[in-house]
Amino acid sequence: MAKASVLIVPGLGNSGPDHWQSWLQQRHPSFTRVEQADWDAPVLNDWVRSLEDAVAAASAPVVLIAHSLGCIAVARWAVCDGSSVGKVAAALLVAPPDVESADHTPPEVHGFAPVPTDPLPFRTVVLASHDDPYAPIARSCGFAVGWGADFIDGGDLGHINTDAGYGPWPDGERLVLDLLRAVDSGA
Hints:
Layout: E1 5-9, H1 20-27, E2 32-33, H2 44-57, E3 62-67, H3 69-81, E4 88-94, E5 123-128, H4 137-147, E6 150-153, H5 170-185
Parallel strand pairs: 1-2, 1-3, 3-4, 4-5, 5-6
Helix pairs in contact: 2-3
């Protein structure tokens, strides 16, 4: 279906085999995961470089599907470092964490602060949850406003990860496919 190259951008710890990103990748084998050298001790510059390399290698316009810390890596890359950012047509950023908050996030992710507040140079959709332990909904909505993104209030979905019950996530898949259709049609 997609003419775009879809890159899955996991967060801290990667997305295990039961995570919705892995489920999505199994259902759509053409989707490619951006790999990191160290998923458990993330270094911002390394994660940004891996993302840049993956986008640069793509042969078609790129759609990014990020979760958690992957969302912050996308935002930092897009506004600060990404020489291939023009290849990105759209991004779905799910459950961005507040990496500036010691109350909400573990120390391993604080090196990704500050969260950029500049508009991202591609169509962006942010989906967040009211009961995400890693970011209050108001903070997630603030990220979306700063990034110039559409915001979807997901209700009570936790961190939208395996622990919150999101292995298979048909609603998320519909969001991805809708975004791909919009990109493919030039909308």
